[in-house]
Amino acid sequence: MTGPFSACGVITLLTDFGLSDPFVGVMTGAILSRYRAARVVDLCHGIQAQAIGEAAFWLERCYSWFPPGSVHVAVIDPGVGSARRILAAALHGHCFVVPDNGLLSPGLIAAPGATVASVDLLRFGITAPSATFHGRDVFAPVAAALASGAVTVPECGPDAEPLPCALRPPRRTDRGFAGEIVTVDRFGNLISNLDASLLVPSTTALQLGEHVVPLHRTYSDVRSGALLALVNAFGVLEVAERDGSAARRLGLGRGAHIELIAPGTER
Amino acid sequence: MTGPFSACGVITLLTDFGLSDPFVGVMTGAILSRYRAARVVDLCHGIQAQAIGEAAFWLERCYSWFPPGSVHVAVIDPGVGSARRILAAALHGHCFVVPDNGLLSPGLIAAPGATVASVDLLRFGITAPSATFHGRDVFAPVAAALASGAVTVPECGPDAEPLPCALRPPRRTDRGFAGEIVTVDRFGNLISNLDASLLVPSTTALQLGEHVVPLHRTYSDVRSGALLALVNAFGVLEVAERDGSAARRLGLGRGAHIELIAPGTER
Amino acid sequence: MTGPFSACGVITLLTDFGLSDPFVGVMTGAILSRYRAARVVDLCHGIQAQAIGEAAFWLERCYSWFPPGSVHVAVIDPGVGSARRILAAALHGHCFVVPDNGLLSPGLIAAPGATVASVDLLRFGITAPSATFHGRDVFAPVAAALASGAVTVPECGPDAEPLPCALRPPRRTDRGFAGEIVTVDRFGNLISNLDASLLVPSTTALQLGEHVVPLHRTYSDVRSGALLALVNAFGVLEVAERDGSAARRLGLGRGAHIELIAPGTER
After folding, report:
1. DSSP states along C5-37
2. Per residue of chain A (267 residues), what is the pLDDT tens digit?
3. What is the mean pLDDT of residues C150-162?
């Protein structure tokens, strides 16, 4: 869906706060204190501490599964307390509220009709937020105002150009495309930034470190314990071990080099 | 409550997805995209990866604490992407949506008037789900349709006989009943599949590995640091250490042998 | 906000249950079974097992971020199954439901007009709760009744005087004030029970173990990797390492001694 943003009351939260402390609960309370009918959904709070690129990846790949009119808040914010800007963006019928540190991917910003504003906190009556918890003191009230329809993105503040995305794009190589492992899920699947659109019909394998991993459609296409690469449900290439953990098996994790390779170019 | 299923809008989610990734959040978004008023409750996402028996145990022991008319979705699904069936079941006024891999216990299926259907995905307009994330692409839309009252279980597809339950039942021994530790909770309590109904008045102890553990009513019946067995709040026998972790103390966990024994038969 | 408690339907849950088991989910189900419109928010379930002082700290520092009329349930309850009392309290427009084991801080109890009742379970029809899971069998129905407005705190039972708070207060020393580290957050920040009100204009440092840590306003006031003390968003002093973990760096955690010191009294 493209078109203007029309709030539906849903607010999703994506943070590196974890769930062992009450930070997410208090942020939710701050939202409810301003907008009692908000529907708050925890998208994920397990982003690695300060891993802006990982969060940018999930934000771009997840938002469209929520109803149009949702407000997506991402608080991975090493600069909390400094003068970094807060951005509000409307695009594809959704809204995003983030610190300006690379959380918005180029694909999002380039959406037709996308609007990005630098949030003027005074317009929200925010004059003295705490120095350490802007999730509660800044992002919650801004998200509540946008999700309730009380304000629109252009009303948040002046137009703004976001800082470049923290998620590095894949680059072309003489063998195909090179990217990196962006995140590792609970099952030990190694998830890359290589979009399925980079595949060509002749592609049959990936190179991950010193391993050449064959490409299949799904886990059950190989025997238990075998390694495979596949296009996962978020449209990117991942390396998995059927019924096991590829991360443990290969000793690899976030940041590992991965390359889509043409047949016969294995090393 | 027995009787036909009448949807109340509550959907519970039981998975082995964990909470470190956005899978649960996205599944919730997919539900809300189809049924905006759904009340989604996270029953538990900490099931051990692919531990179908553990999930079957909790599903059977937990569902009745939710309002009649709830839809309970369990996604522990090593066969995702293969041809395994999806089941929808209505029983005791509740509804269940699961892969057909042993998640439904005999006690559930045997409920008077229980109805089980093999879900025909085409009836839900699901033609090309991803190969790896049926929680989002299959279970979410089916649960949304059932929880909103848009479809009934018989309308989901043809009648089906579920595969046998993955949770092994206790067996009779010459000393009493033998079972196993099904799950270990955060406190290190060792929770078995031995139902309280297997106790006889003369039972005063359990054998767990080489340990004979006395049976008590509650934790505070013994001094701090002592081991005890008790009937827990889910109606099964568990072994605990007061103010400590029985799992760490005994070095035991899931799968450990446990036996209800008659007095004088300790080994 | 002071004044009488007027229920708004929000129930917050603070426990040491963790999220790896279905205990929180089932407790939520028990609430919804009695009060279908309840708005249940997970404040935090990562309190250390049986850490009453840590929970008392967070309860006092977090409740006011929720809407007036919220019911705050804290279940850190080593005495479950024993004869310990259940308390319901109304103060500052909020309601609290806790076991009587030190979860209510002196600051809460001293609120003008605060009312504390010892809950008479028979008035709620609770005659035979399980011995091990009062979150589900006692706290859930009491909270549902209070949050729906069906009962008031004085109707819960006779007036009661809570047991002393498990969170020790700071004490005056010849150098300033001494307290302790109450909790450590996901980022490794060491959070103390020293309230910002104990600071005097001449304070420039804290002593934590053998380390003298300079006081700043926010993380970004120091270079990456530097230690600092600051007043955090909950109004207490915390020790942090910018872009790192102070807990790991210093090898310190819960219970560590921390002291606000006058200039020139470092050791």
Report:
1. ----SEEEEEES--SSSTHHHHHHHHHHHH-TT
2. 445 799 999 999 999 999 999 999 999 999 999 999 999 999 999 999 999 999 999 999 999 999 999 999 999 999 888 889 999 999 999 999 999 999 999 999 999 999 999 999 999 999 999 989 999 999 999 999 999 999 999 999 999 999 999 999 999 999 899 999 999 999 999 999 999 999 988 888 999 988 999 999 999 899 999 999 999 999 999 999 999 999 999 999 999 999 998 888 877
3. 97
Backbone CA torsion sign across B77, B79, B82, B83: negative
Q: Is B115 helix (H, G, I), strand (E, B) or coil?
A: strand
In C, minimum Cα distance to A15 occurs at: C186
User: Do residue A232 and residue B25 have CB atoms under 8 angstroms apart?
Assistant: no
Beta-carbon separation of B132 and A217 below 8 A:
no
Amino acid (1-letter code) at residue A249: R
Strand B10-15 vs strand B71-75: parallel, antiparallel, or unpaired?
Answer: parallel
Q: What is the per-residue pLDDT across C51-75, written as a single tens digit (0 to 9) for each? A: 999 999 999 999 999 999 999 999 9
Burial class of residue C88 (count of CB atoms within 10 Å of its CB; 0-12, 13-18, 19+): buried
Q: What is the mean pLDDT of residues C206-220?
A: 93
The minimum CA-CA distance between B139 and chain A, rounded to whole Å, is: 14
Looking at the DSSP bridge assignments, the partners of residue B209 are: none
Question: pLDDT digit string (tens) for C159-212?
Answer: 999 999 999 999 999 989 999 999 999 999 999 999 999 998 888 899 998 899
DSSP 8-state assignment for residue B168 = P
Report CA-CA distances (Å) from A137 to A185, B92, B258.
31, 46, 52
Structure tokens given for B199: 């106790």
**B10 contacts C32? CB cut-off 8 A:** yes
Kindly state the tokens that stand for B233: 């709040």
Contact A33 C58 (CB under 8 A): no
Q: Is the dihedral of CA C258, C260, C266, C267 positive or negative?
A: negative
Q: Which residue has the tokens 């809300």?
A: B32
Interface residues from chain A to C (CB-CB < 8 Å): 16-26, 28-30, 32-33, 36, 49-50, 78-82, 130-133, 136-137
| Phi/psi-derived region of residue B176, left when phi > 0, alpha when psi is between -120 and 50, beta in every other case | left
> Residue C220: which of A23, A33, A82 has the nearest Cβ?
A82
How far away is chain A from the Cα of C231, in angstroms, using its nearest Cα? 8
Residues of chain B with confidence (pLDDT) below 50: 1-2
Q: Enumerate residues 6+ apart whose C-beta is below 8 A from B140.
A: B27, B30, B31, B34, B73
A158-175 residues labelled b (16+ CB within 10 A) or e (exposed)? eebebeebbbeebeeeeb
Of B25, B19, B151, B16, the residue nearest B80 (C-alpha): B16
Q: How far is B184 from chain C (nearest CA, A)?
A: 9
Dump strand ranges (E) for A198-235.
205-208, 211-214, 227-231
Chains near C with 3+ CB pairs less than 8 A apart are: A, B
